[in-house]
Amino acid sequence: MTSALHYDDIETNRVEAIFGDNGELLVSLPANHASALISFIETIRVTNSWGEKRIPYHARLVPLVKGLLVILRILLKHSRLFDLGGVIVLKSTSQTWEQLPDGQFLFRIMR
């Protein structure tokens, strides 16, 4: 098991290297950063679930607006989380998280 990255340790090159070497990435975040990452992951899951299905425009609009708000939130308040975006969106198949007794959230991102 690899040690978890913390918010201040998140950099694109480091994230990519750890994920490439181990096939998984552990990230420990405080609640304020964790809620933004959870919203981002849930938005990705919703849009990925559409697949080839023909979803009506009005049914796609609300999740897309929520996704835009999540991205703006990350951009303005949690910019280092963008460095996890490439791994979450393009390379991983599983993203899980749990809240630890100390209030931190542990994210496990796997292939």
Please provide the count of β strands. Answer: 4
Inertia-based shape: globular
Order of helices and strands: EHEHHHEE
Low-confidence stretches: none
Query: Helicity, in percent?
Result: 55-70%
Q: Main sheet, how many strands, which sense, barrel?
A: 4 strands, mixed
N-C termini distance? 15 Å
**Total DSSP helices:** 4
Q: Enumerate the strands of the largest sheet in spatial order, edge to edge or round the barrel.
A: 1-2-4-3
* Beta-strand residue percentage: 15-25%
Radius of gyration: 14 Å
Structural class: alpha+beta
Average of the residue pLDDT scores: 91
Explain this structure to me?
The protein is α+β, with helices and mostly antiparallel strands and 111 residues long. The protein has a four-stranded mixed β-sheet. Helix 1 packs parallel to helix 4 and helix 2 runs antiparallel to helix 3. The longest helix has 21 residues. The radius of gyration is 14 Å and the shape is globular. 21% of the residues are buried.
How do the helices and strands line up, and which of them pair or pack?
Blueprint: E1 5-6, H1 12-22, E2 24-29, H2 31-50, H3 57-77, H4 82-91, E3 94-99, E4 105-110
Parallel strand pairs: 1-2
Antiparallel strand pairs: 2-4, 3-4
Helix pairs in contact: 1-4, 2-3
